[in-house]
């Protein structure tokens, strides 16, 4: 039988709540309290008492000493000696000097580059009063540095026990959280390696008791080492370690019998495990022998182990009953030189997906890019989608992605310059997500096109040509960033006989491509009703999704022309 949680006993029984080093300072400021805690575990029937030195390697890496009483520093070697001495004294007081062993507790911070040298110095410091065994505990990963430390510890000829935060699902935390995916037999193979290296026992600690089941039987398939478990009965909070638990002595004894039946040869407790738990477990285990039982496989935190719970879990669906886990994002490839997205791309795509826009309609995608909107419209059930873009690579990418998603028979593409373009057909739905970057006239190269001073040249071309492109009952979806003037947009829509409403909006960081025009963008914001929002101290962009349709009546100039859709 191991003892229980020395540091949490110090906190609960003696009010010693220095959590940063798990009560190790008490070896200087309150040595009698440390000795009293050890003695209670000795009287409860523990066969191994662990020293109050778990954080010793942390002190070594943090400078080598702690601030003792009267503001005098205490060196880590002295702390180690006091830790072993307090445990020895408690065993003598309990009258079990020939029955109880002292285990020097060390944590995984010993794995650093100076770990082997620290071990050599530690053994030198304890040469006159060595512990009976070394317990390197609360480990997680099996790294090369750990193997080096193990070899250094074994050079002392003192028995070495290793203990890990592990459960059948891999590395595990104090709350039962899992730190990685399935590992197969990786940890089992590590156990076999430890046995070959000469380690004397392998244990599991510092995890909730319900995560221990299955670990001993798993390890037994790989190693003949003595195996043990000593879980937590509590958890750490912002107010300190909470050891209040519904688990009392008899219930803990029942758990201990279960672990024993599975094959555990060493049983004790970590943080929150009191002397009464150890006493109850010792009594329950008297006269028992390790078994070979295997617990039923379980699944926790979405990690499956033998039993699949996915069929029983409720699905996450949208308002139309479509599965949202995973989200049905189109399978897209993007060739070099074709932009993945521009502001508004995902806003438009989410709206098309949520509303099943384009179903049974002829659609036009202006500025198709890699084809995200084109493909989604076709997946929504559009009878035909025509994609246009000035970049030949973008059109080719769109057609390739349509084929990749199985909708190529309903998609066509054409390389088109929007400025001279004249619509030859009418469409029930037109979508347009276009670049909107204000360009300073001094930074623009000579061109036959006018400088896009306000960043709205392409949007204005779309608005002007919608009357020729929209069917009688058709509509358009256009993304518009907050840099573009609302007043000018409404004016141009009215001139074209169109009205618009906001059907969605989003916030996003200012694209990196805007950085080169930062000074000019500031000028545009100053001269118009366009604006940037600020995400903390960084400028951000608001992107609106406008639903545009033909106006049934002349717009009323006294009413707000552009309001949020509800």
Keywords:
elongated, TIM Barrel, 566 residues, alpha/beta
Write up this protein.
The protein is of the alpha/beta class and 566 residues long. The chain has 2 domains: 6-285, TIM Barrel; 345-438 and 449-550, Vaccinia Virus protein VP39 (Rossmann fold, 3-Layer(aba) Sandwich), CATH 3.40.50.150. The chain is 32% helix and 19% strand. The protein is built from 17 helices and 21 strands. The strands form 5 sheets. Strands 14, 15, 16, 17, 18, 19, 20 and 21 form an 8-stranded mixed beta sheet that branches. Strands 1-4-5-6-9-10-13 form a 7-stranded parallel beta sheet. The chain has a two-stranded antiparallel ribbon with strand order 2-3. Helix 15 (457-469) links the parallel strand 17 (427-432) and strand 18 (470-481). Helix 1 (6-14) crosses helix 3, helix 6 packs parallel to helix 7 (144-154) and helix 10 crosses helix 11. The longest helix is centred in the first third of the chain and has 18 residues, at 76-93. The chain is elongated.
């Amino acid at each position: 039988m191991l003892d229980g949680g020395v540091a949490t006993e110090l906190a609960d029984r003696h009010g010693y709540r220095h959590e940063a080093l798990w009560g190790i300072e008490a070896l200087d400021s309150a040595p009698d309290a440390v000795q009293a805690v050890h003695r209670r575990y000795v009287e409860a029937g523990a066969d191994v008492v662990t020293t109050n030195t778990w954080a010793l390697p942390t002190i070594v890496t943090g400078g080598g000493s702690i601030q003792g009483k009267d503001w005098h520093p205490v060196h880590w070697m002295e702390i180690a000696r006091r830790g072993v001495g307090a445990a020895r004294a408690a065993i003598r007081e309990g009258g079990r000097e020939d029955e109880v062993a002292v285990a020097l507790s060390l944590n995984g911070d010993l794995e650093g580059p100076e770990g082997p040298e620290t071990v050599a110095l530690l053994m030198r410091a304890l040469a006159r009063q060595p512990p009976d065994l070394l317990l390197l505990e609360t480990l997680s990963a099996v790294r090369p540095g750990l193997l080096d430390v193990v070899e250094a510890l074994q050079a002392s000829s003192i028995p070495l026990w290793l203990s890990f935060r592990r459960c059948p699902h891999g590395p595990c935390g104090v709350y039962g959280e899992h730190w990685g995916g399935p590992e197969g037999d990786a940890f089992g193979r590590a156990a076999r390696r430890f046995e070959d290296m000469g380690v004397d026992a392998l244990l599991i600690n510092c995890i909730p008791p319900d995560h221990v089941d299955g670990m001993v039987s798993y390890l037994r398939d790989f190693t003949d080492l003595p195996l043990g478990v000593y879980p937590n009965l509590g958890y750490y909070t912002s107010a300190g370690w909470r050891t209040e638990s519904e688990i009392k002595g008899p219930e803990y004894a029942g758990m201990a019998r279960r672990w024993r039946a599975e094959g555990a040869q060493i049983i004790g407790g970590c943080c929150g495990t009191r002397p009464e738990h150890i006493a109850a477990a010792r009594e329950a285990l008297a006269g028992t022998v390790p078994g070979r039982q295997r617990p039923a496989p379980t699944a926790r935190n979405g990690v499956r182990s033998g039993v699949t719970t996915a069929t029983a879990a409720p699905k996450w669906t949208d308002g139309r009953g479509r599965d949202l886990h995973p989200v049905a994002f189109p399978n897209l490839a993007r060739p070099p030189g074709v932009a993945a997205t521009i502001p508004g791309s995902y806003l438009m795509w989410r709206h098309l997906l949520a509303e099943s826009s384009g179903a049974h309609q002829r659609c036009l995608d202006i500025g198709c890019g890699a084809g995200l909107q084109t493909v989604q419209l076709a997946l929504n059930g559009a009878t035909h989608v025509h994609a246009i873009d000035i970049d030949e690579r973008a059109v080719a990418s769109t057609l390739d992605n349509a084929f990749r998603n199985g909708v190529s028979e309903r998609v066509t593409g054409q390389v088109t310059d929007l400025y001279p373009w004249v619509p030859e057909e009418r469409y029930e739905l037109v979508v347009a997500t276009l670049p909107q970057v204000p360009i300073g006239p001094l930074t623009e190269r000579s061109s036959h096109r006018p400088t896009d001073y306000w960043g709205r040249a392409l949007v204005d071309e779309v608005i002007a040509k919608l009357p020729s492109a929209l069917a009688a009952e058709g509509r358009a979806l256009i993304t518009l960033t907050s840099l573009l003037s609302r007043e000018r947009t409404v004016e141009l829509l009215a001139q074209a006989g169109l009205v618009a409403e906001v059907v969605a909006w989003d916030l996003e960081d200012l694209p990196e491509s805007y950085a080169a025009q930062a000074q000019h963008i500031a000028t545009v914001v100053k001269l118009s009703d366009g604006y940037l929002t600020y995400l903390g101290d960084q400028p951000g962009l608001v992107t609106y999704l406008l639903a545009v349709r033909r106006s049934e009546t002349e717009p009323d100039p006294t009413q707000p022309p552009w309001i949020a859709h509800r």
